[in-house]
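Minimal example, chain plus pyridoxal-5'-phosphate.
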Amino acid sequence: MKIETQCLHEGYIPGNGGARVVPIYQSTTYKFDSTEHVKGLFDLTEEGHFYSRLSNPTVEAVEKKIAAMEGGVGALMTSSGQAASFIALLNILKCGDHFVSAASIYGGTLNLFSVTMKRMGIEVTYVDGDATEEEIQAAIKENTRALFGETLSNPTMSVFDIEKFARIAHKNQIPLIVDNTFATPVLCRPIEFGADIVTHSTTKYMDGHAVSVGGVIVDSGNFDWTNGKFPEFTQPDESYHGVVYTRDFGKSAYIVKARVQMMRDLGCTPSPQTAFYVNLGLETLPMRIKTHCENAKKAAEYLLAHDKVEWVNYPALEGDKYKTLAEKYLPQGCSGVIAFSVKGGREGGIKFIDSLKLISLQVHVADIRSCVLHPASSTHRQLSDEQLKNAGITPGLIRLSVGCENIEDIISDIEQALSKV
Ligand SMILES: *Cc1c(COP(=O)(O)O)cnc(C)c1O
């Protein structure tokens, strides 16, 4: 199935007389006929739902759909994108381990890596995503266990060279994790370029309507966890009577472990209602993404030609620094997100944002309604000037998320707000 068809049909097949739309199983628990059966469920020798912190039929249907869209062997939905990033890494890393991340990433992820995970004894090194293979290799240590980056970085809109990072990761026998939130599998499927694990904040385009916070992790099934660097995958898990993830679950070892260990213990589960909303969003994702891309390209071109605009980052633009990488990884478009700066830096940016009428100021992005944000005073507010610079964020940077309104209305709002600058 092509992605438009997957978005409508994967994950749930109604039986004769069954509900056409995936039902919301608003149930925390499930009923069994025998203790024998429950015993098997707890030992993971029997498949099935037994408690909704671990799995739920509505959530499972959406997980299957997203796994199919990304070309993975399985997926795990989480209560937020933050939880997805955290679990994706914690499933591999423990106290004393190290990982390498591209520096241009979402502010919340930066905090998670630099503050909270650091406090847990997990160390991160940031590298410039555009650095050479040798430079990135130099950041890898004996205890490095993963590489991380965002397909399209939030908010600077740089394109992550997935194949380059996958080569480095695999040369070092460690997995590459790619946050594919802005691109969505409609525009880019990182697994096809060598990514081992893909994460998303479903809060953004997948939901797309600003109604639910959520995340998801997708496992490619391609990484070899038996290479000696990941004993948690190859040694018996005593909390499941000696289950060995690679032996017992083969290609799904990573995603099964993420669910039965990480989700069991951390409990950042999505509600069935949230999964239902995400599913509705997914049904129209390809159509919305097409409009987002077309509108954003036009808005970016308009901004670039405007004399009050200092610079524009939109990788599909002629002359953009990432145009070549975008043609390779995102040939159908670069989402609805644009980063730009008006002349007059921080003050100019604030004047522009406060003058907008249709496009609303929101702590949100990748939504059906156009919205705008000033990262330096909001999402990336906790970062030092040095960290801001490393993440590619200038004080005047504006993140414009172009929605699905008529492009003429969007541009006339931009036009009138720029006239106030
Ligand atoms: C928003 C976002 C996240 C965090 O997701 P939440 O759903 O807000 O927890 C992670 N990565 C990227 C790229 C994001 O845009």
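The chain has 16 helices and twelve strands. The mean pLDDT is 96.
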